[in-house]
Structure formats: C-alpha cells, structure tokens
Amino acid sequence: MMLGLNGLSRRWVGLLALYIAILSLLTPAATVKHDNFKTCDQSGFCKRNRAYADTAISNSKWESPYSLDQASLKFDNGILTGVVNKKIINTDESVRLPLTVAFYESGTARVTIDEEKRQKGQIELRHGSKASKQRYNEAEKWAIVGGTTVSKGAATSQDTETGTTKVVYGPGSKFEAVIRHAPFGVDFKRDGETQIKFNDRGLLNVEHWRQKVEKPKEEKREGEEEKKEGDEAVVAESDKSAAEDESTWWEESFGGNTDSKPRGPEAVALDVSFPGYQHVYGVAEHTGPLSLKETRGGEGKHSDPYRLHNSDVFEYEMDSPMTLYGSIPFMQAQKKDSTVGVFWLNAAETWIDITKTSTSANPLSLGIGSATTTQAHWISEAGVLDMFVFLGPKPQDVIGAYTDLTGYTQLPQQFAIAYHQCRWNYVTDEDVRDVDRKFDKHNIPYDVIWLDIEYTDGKKYFTWDPMTFPDPLGMNEQLDEHERKLVAIIDPHIKNEGNYPVNEELKSKDLAVHNKDSNIYEGWCWPGSSTWIDCFNPKARDWWKGLFRYDKFKGTMKNVWIWNDMNEPSVFNGPETTMPKDNIHHGGWEHRDIHNVNGLTLVNATYDALLARDKDEDKHHVRPFILTRSFYSGSQRMGAMWTGDNQADWPRLAESIPMVLSMGISGFPFAGADVGGFFGNPSKELLTRWYQTGAFYPFFRGHAHIDTRRREPYLAGDPYKAIIAQALRLRYSLLPAWYTAFHEASVSGAPILRPNYYMHPGDEKGFGIDDQFYLGSYGLLAKPVTQEGQQGQDIYLADKEKYYDYFDYWTYEGPGTVSVAAPLETIPLLMQGGHIIPRRDRPRRSSGLMRYDPFTLVIVLGNSGDAEGMLYLDDGESFDFQDGAFIHRRFLYTSATSSLVSEDVASTKASGKKAQDYLKQMESVRVEKIIVIGAPAAWKGMSDVEVSEELGGGESAAATRRVPLDWHEKDEGRAAWAVVRDPGVRVGGGWKIAFA
Ligand code: NOJ
C-alpha cells in the first residue's frame, strides 16, 4: 500500500489548504497569497519558453528552426496557405505545421499555425476515457462574430532573391505583409514602413507532438533524499539547453495538485516586435499603469511576464503582472501619430513578456534620433497559434478593427448605466424594501439594488431563502413602482446535494464538467461540494435557458437581472483556486484548452436565457443585463464587467482608473470597480471620493464585503451624504451623454472613457497618462481626486484649446498642466471647447422616471468658435431601436452664422411603425435650456434669440418665434456665458436658433 501514507498526507494537506482558502476568503488579509499562484518559473511551459528565448537571444548564431516550404505555398482568394517546417534540433527530422495567412476586407490580417500530427484523432486517457488530440481551434467560435470577409483585392508576389512572398492588402492597398521563408517570419508594413514583425527574434516555438517514453523509475540510492516537488527547477537551472527541459512535459505539480498532461508539451509561442514604438497597452486584466511595463526584471520593471489565466485572485495586489479574473489578449502599440495592434486568439493560459530596446544612430546625439522598439513574447500552453494584425494608423482604427471581429458592447438598457446599490448582502426582502425607501427619503437617486449569494436557500441558485426572502415578488413590485430593478447573483457552481432539482438534472442529464476519469467533477465553492455546468455543451446551454423562465425561477419578474460571479471558474480546493486543467469538457477538450473562455460561455448561456425568458412572454422584449467577473475577448457583447475584489484604500481607488481605462481600449468599455472598496471599511472621505470617481465608471456600482459596515450613501452623514448625492446627481444629469457614448461604443467599439493617447495620438508627452480621461466624444475631461486630503488637482491639457471648469466656467488654456481647485465637494472636471453636451437636469428617483424629461444643451465654445455634439436616445430598454425607434441628432453651433441647428444623423428606418410610435411618444419632449459657455462679447445686450422649428407632418415650413437670452458677464477668470431660456424646441425634431 504505497499510496497509503502519501495519499493520506496529501489528503490532509489538501484539506488544510481548503480550510485556509475558505478562512482567507472570509477574513481579509493585507495582500494576495503569492504562493497560491504560479510564477513563470513554476509554470512548465512558460519557463521552457523563457529559457528558449534566453538561448536564442544570448546566442549570436541562433537561427530559428522554422522555415516555409516554398513549394507548398498557395494564394487563393485573399488566403495564403502553406507548410512551415520545424526542424527538430540535433536531428534530421522536421515537423509539418500548416500555415494560413488570411487577409480580410477590413484590412486585418491573420496568421494561423496548426500542427499536422495533431489535426485529427483522440487520445486515450488513463481510465479509458478519451480526449481530443487536436490543438484547440474553437476559441474563434466564442470570440469572433464578424470582420472575416476575405479581401478580394489582396495581391501576392514572390521575390526569389530575398526569399519572401509579399501580399499587398488593406484599404487603398496601403498595407503589405512580407512573409520571410527561412527562417520563417512575417513583417507587416503600412505605407512602406515596417510596423510589426513576427519571429524577428526567432522565438517562434510550437511544441510538437511526441510519443511519451516511459522512463524506468530511478532506483533510490542509499542515503539519497526522495525527490520533492520543486526539485525539477534545480535540474532545469543546471541544464543550459533548458528549451528541452522535459521535467514538466507529462506531469506538473503545484500547491498539492498534480496536472496529468495526456498530450504532453504543446505550447505555442511567438515574438512580436513593434519597431519604433515606445508604448504598448492592453492585455487586460491587470493592475498597474495603462502603458505596460517591461517584464524581464530591473528597476521599475516587472520580473514576471503579464499572465492571462482567469483566476479568483484573492486580495489582488497593485501594479502587478499577476493574472486576474479575465483575459483580453489584445495589445496596441503607440508611437507619435501611429497606433497598431495584435490579437492573440488563444483560450489557454498565456504569458506575455515585454521588453524594449533603444537604438541611437549616433552615441553623441543625446537621445535625439534614438528609437525604441517594443517587443512582446506571447506564450500559450496549448491551442493553435492564431494572431490578428491591425495596422491603424489611429487608435480607433485598431480598436474598431478588433471589435469588428469580437463584437461591440451591447447597447445597455438605460438603468444599467445609472447607479447600482449592492452589498454582500441585503439580508431580507424587508431590508431591500427599507433601503429602497431610504434612498427616496434622502432624495438620492438609484436604479438597481443587488442580491448577493445569501438570498438563496442554502446557496442553491434559482431558490430563495424562505425565512429571509418570503416575498420576493412583493419586493420586486415595490422596486418596480419607481422603475427600479433587482439584480440577483447566479454562479456556475451547483450545490451537490440530493433533493435539489437543479443538481439532480445537471447530473442525470450529464451536463456537468467531467474530471480526467470521465466522472462528474466535484469541487468546493460557496455551497460546499459542487458540480459545474459545462456551457460548451449545447444541451447544457439549452437546459440553462429553461432555468430562468419566470415559472421556473419563481419570485423573479421582468425587472430582475443577473450577476454571474465566480465563473473563472473559482474552485476553492482546485489548483490556483480554479479547475484542474485535465478536466474534460464537451467535445473532448481539456479544461487547459478552454480555460480563459470558460467564463464567457456561462455569460453567453445566461444572455440567451434572459432573451428567451422575455421572448416567450411578450414581443416587446428587452435587452438583457448581466454582470460578469470573468471574461474573454467578446464578453463585451453580453454585458458589464467589474474589477473584482478590491479594497477600501486610497491606492486601490487610484488603481481603478487605469484598470477601467484599460478595459475601455480593449473593446470592453462597460467596466467599473466596486465603489467604496470591497474589503474593509472606507473612511467617509474615501467613500466620498470613490463616489466622485465612480460617477465616471461606465459601470457604476457600490459594493461591499459581508464583514463590512453598512455604507449606503444616506448613512454617510453631513457633509458627505450631500456630496455623494451631488456626485450621483451629476451622473444622472449626464445620462444622455453617457447613453450616447454607449451608443457610439455599440456601433464602433469606441471606448467610453478615453485616455490621452487615444484622444491625442500625436502628443507623445501624454502617452503614459492614465489618471485622467475624456468621457465619450464630449470633451469632458475628468481627473478625480484619489488621494487623502488632496485639495487640488493638476490636469494635463494636450492641445491648444480652451477648457472650462464644468461647475464654475473658470477658463484654462492648453497645452500644458493646469491646477484646478478640488476641495472635497468638487470633482475636477473640465469641458474642452468645441463641444455640445446634452443633459437632463431635473432630479428624479431613478433614470426610468426621466424618460420624458426635458433637455439642457451646454454649448462650449473654444478657439474656433464652433461646437458640435451628438444625442442618441431610444426607449432605453427594448430592441425597437433596431427597427428605427430612436432619435439621433447632431447639434451644430456655427460662429460664422451665430446659429445653432439640430440635424438628423440617421433615421433610415424612421418610416416603420415602431419608429413612428416612438417619435410620437417623444413629441412633447423639449429642450428647456441652452447654456453657451464662452459666449461672444457681441451678445452683450442681446435680450432674445430667434427660434425656427420645422413643423411636424412632413411640412418643410418653419414656425418662427423669439425667446429670451440672459447674458452673464465675464468675471475674474471665468468665461462669459449666456442662457437661452425655454426655447421649447423638440428634442427629436429639426430646428434652428439664431443668436441675432
Ligand atoms: C466574489 C465576488 O467578487 C464578490 O463581489 C461577491 O460579493 C462574493 N463573491 C460573494 O458572492
């Protein structure tokens, strides 16, 4: 019984680890438990590939062993195919790797490398069950929804002299891919200049299929210690050809868990260089600056690569390349006036090393004329090598092309971009009703109240605790009276208990994830022993759909929406708090293959369930709302994300800004952090500043851990309560601007919060700035206070433009840094000249109650004297906008004619019934005020303006009338301003106001 002691002690260690894990989840400690998560050195494939890189880089004679078989090349209809041969070092053998380079109509190129030997078949697992032998190639099924129309214009030519194949492609044939044959590599050019290079440093590595050779067990010699976990590292250290370090090929242990690796080593890696580019952004989700740091050690640099391995990282730390809950393997590089990008489509664990090299033409040039090249080394554990290339040149070109592939943020319901009140937990339905009443009593707006896991009957999702939530419907009806919503949590782990129909069905229908022995996988999560739905199984997704029907999930009604948490998935007793990599999913894929896309599949299933729930009920079905913790490229199509379990301290507040910005430039702008901080109790000052910051998160939710003190805004006391209420009112009054920004994101992928580099891609000084941002296309520039006791804020203005304080119109002029006073009651917020900002200023209890409220337009005049702004509006809930039921206006102020006009942007389907009905409903909604900031001195003494409005019913004639204008003189540093009182023009109609 060899197993005896070993097995037993391992079990004890396992139990102890579990106990500690649970304890640590309940009692917040100061920092992340590093030991729970691997470093690159503890991750076999990462270590091997770093060693490979070291060998390649340190050896001047290194030549990448990959070459393109020229005879295999075919170019057909925008797609180049061929075979790359990998020569196996020290042998005459080579491995055939099918290559595809696709050129899309959008100007995006895609390089895919597979492995012939792994393209078919299955492998036997130890217990007779089977797993797929193939490299996982279905990430695309989850992540990609468009943008792959092949380019008809792409043209190829061979250059035998240089041994290259060239393909000219993209808009105006400005792009070129130069495919180098030996060693294999690709250079991407724009306008003749190289922007991106693949395999320039020779780090391409496809770990090929090998037969496992059972080595005889080494006899233990007398006096020799038994080999312990960790010893492998020492072995590899001493083995200088560490690229062939075999110690983790077939098995790998970490933290008491052993990963069997039935397919052996199968990593894919590639180096990508951005010549001339100083900054790279992206690869969310991490803490730390927006502009990514170098990762191979040294001062101010990380020593581990950025890791993407979706995990429940408890008490995650600041400024770290450690993995977090979600992964977006999309990177942008920035240099003056040029942005390019790559997207590494791979759902397995991934690490990205970043290094920079500087070259200077002349050592005496003092840096003038020197150029930085940023290099990224992408390493994934499994799957095919699949990389997309975007050649810009503008930030939006790159983000737009990426979101063209992975989809745009769904236009959310309006309530979803208003304020959400959450905590773990509102403890009874009466508690919820009470909080709801108190918001009203204190005149503080909110739209949504949330229920965390304690509402359930013993952590069984789709049930209510009968003692504490005896009347969920009554509760929801009360919320509905003020158009408020409830969001209830539903996690993917299902309590493994008899008499719980959800569990019984999951098991009897065989819809759960399996372990490596082909049995249903059991792990530990909130409910104790649990099983996990396998959303890769279409039958499981179908079944999940049924669970959300109103007659199944009793106690829910139309105003109830869903929070999918713990979907990395979080498994308390699993390796690195997640699922074993050798678990098996539908289709025979190992968990290793799909780990990073796992969270997305759950949200996808929930999204379909919520759609189906309403579709069955009624034709006017509304847009689902889901919040997810785990995500992958494409998750933006289904809802919002938040940054997980942060802490109630000042550095975390500051950190939230680059994190939310990073999501925005990664195609997933509907992002926020827990306002107030999840763990711990914020001081009142911190809470107040957090609300002021949160008012600018696209997803704005207060949330708190179960052990924290209650902190609903109305509890803050004077003066904090009033200041928090002001921040909330600011968010509510700007909802028309937020909603329009979301609309823009939903059709173009544009970020909602825009960092400096995005707005001013020619301004190198601003490329590293990540603590201030612009909201949408409105020129609203915010820099929330994130330090204790801070009374002022320095804001960087990149352009030569006028900026005005949002609240008192104090005038600033760029470029340069300006100081803005920021006492506790103030949010540093400026308005850049040249924009028109739509607002709704009437205080209401919830956004739903603002539906027919009038608008205020704020015209911000800058250097040119002209201004422009958009307004998008629809019913804020249904899909009717797809049938034309929306209002989309452009407001234009022209100084040459001193007039403001409202034009239709697009209403192509406006003749449809839904469109007509909507316009009719909005007929009475007016503009009640126009404020002109920086108003021309010539208006002094003007007492009224001329309004002409198109008459309804298709008549082109305009009715003309005069309305009053109030002039406000310049005062100290403040701008002059004027107010048009009650112009009464329809928000959905055409009109003109002449300031004469
Ligand atoms: C973990 C989530 O990150 C947190 O927000 C939530 O309150 C707890 N799970 C309990 O559900």
UniProtKB/TrEMBL annotation:
Chemical reaction(s) catalysed: Hydrolysis of terminal, non-reducing (1->4)-linked alpha-D-glucose residues with release of alpha-D-glucose
Pathway where this protein functions: Glycan metabolism; N-glycan metabolism
Chain ranges of the Glycoside hydrolase family 31 N-terminal domain: 98-353
One GO cellular component term noted in the UniProt record for this chain: glucosidase II complex
Glycoside hydrolase family 31 TIM barrel domain sequence ranges: 410-741
GO biological process: carbohydrate metabolic process; N-glycan processing
Spans annotated as Disordered: 213-263
InterPro entries per the UniProt record, alphabetical: Gal_mutarotase_sf_dom, GH, Glyco_hydro_31_C, Glyco_hydro_31_N_dom, Glyco_hydro_31_TIM, Glyco_hydro_b
Entry GO MF terms: alpha-1,4-glucosidase activity; carbohydrate binding
One Pfam family this sequence matches: Gal_mutarotas_2
Domain Glycosyl hydrolase family 31 C-terminal: 749-837
EC number: 3.2.1.20
Membership in a protein family: Belongs to the glycosyl hydrolase 31 family.
PANTHER family: ALPHA-GLUCOSIDASE, BCDNA.GH04962
Full protein name: alpha-glucosidase
